[in-house]
Amino acid sequence: MDTISERYQHVLSQIRHATGIAGRPKNSVQLLAVSKTKPAGDIAVLYRLGQRHFAENYQQEALLKQQALAGFNITWHFIGPIQSNKTKAIAGQFSWVHSVDRLKIAQRLSEQRPAHLPPLNICLQVNISEESSKAGVSLAELPELAAAITVLPNLRLRGVMAIPEPNSQYAQQRLPYRHLYQAVQDLHLAGLDSYSFGMSGDLKAAIMEGATMVRIGTALFGERDYRV
């Protein structure tokens, strides 16, 4: 598959197939196109094919693309690490943030969310594999952080995001997602309906274990480059 269009159709087919195998309703899994390091032109191609949700990891790069694509009705998701001094732009320029793992960051996002915009949709990043090299709240800390964020006025807690330790075995790929999905269910918090699970290498496993959004980059755009 040499073109973005061909890759896009293939990914959509994979999502439909996995959703069917899981016995879940059609269109219950949303494709989130991860466009980090890819040029605005590639995003425009996918947009014209029907894709509307795009995710970025780097604030400054994302802002440049948002300016270039200002005429497009894109829903922007931020999925990268968040520095305290970068929260204002994220609060104002994105509809979703998937990578919140500290109350301080959530508080700043709430305080800096422009009054004319709806509440910012939040997913809590959980370090489900307990890797020291990765960001994310632990499962043990998740209930307390979730409860604290639900009372912030300009945020809407929607669910969780996870990036498990890579594993090539399908059965092993499913386990961390299953564990986290059940942990969120056990919280019994109203409105938690979003599971940002799965990337190009474990899409099927994530959907089988409850993903409502799959974050796909390489399978859509090809290998990373550094043009913006």
UniProtKB/TrEMBL annotation:
Q: Does the keyword Isomerase apply?
A: no
Q: Which residues carry this modification: N6-(pyridoxal phosphate)lysine?
A: 36
The superkingdom listed in its UniProt entry is: Bacteria
What cofactor does its activity depend on?
pyridoxal 5'-phosphate
Q: So which residues are the signal peptide here? A: none
Matching entries from CDD domains are given as:
PLPDE_III_Yggs_like (cd06824)
Q: Which PROSITE patterns match?
A: UPF0001 (PS01211)
Q: Which InterPro entries match?
A: Ala_racemase_N (IPR001608), PLP-binding_barrel (IPR029066), PyrdxlP_homeostasis (IPR011078)
Q: Which UniProt keywords apply?
A: Pyridoxal phosphate
- Per the UniProt record, one Pfam family is Ala_racemase_N
Domain (Alanine racemase N-terminal): residue spans on this chain = 27-224
The transmembrane segments are: none
| UniProt entry tagged with the keyword Lipoprotein | no
- GO terms for molecular function, please? pyridoxal phosphate binding
Which family is this protein grouped under? Answer: Belongs to the pyridoxal phosphate-binding protein YggS/PROSC family.
Describe the function of this protein. Answer: Pyridoxal 5'-phosphate (PLP)-binding protein, which is involved in PLP homeostasis.
- Name it: Pyridoxal phosphate homeostasis protein
- What organism does the UniProt record list as the source? Methylomonas paludis
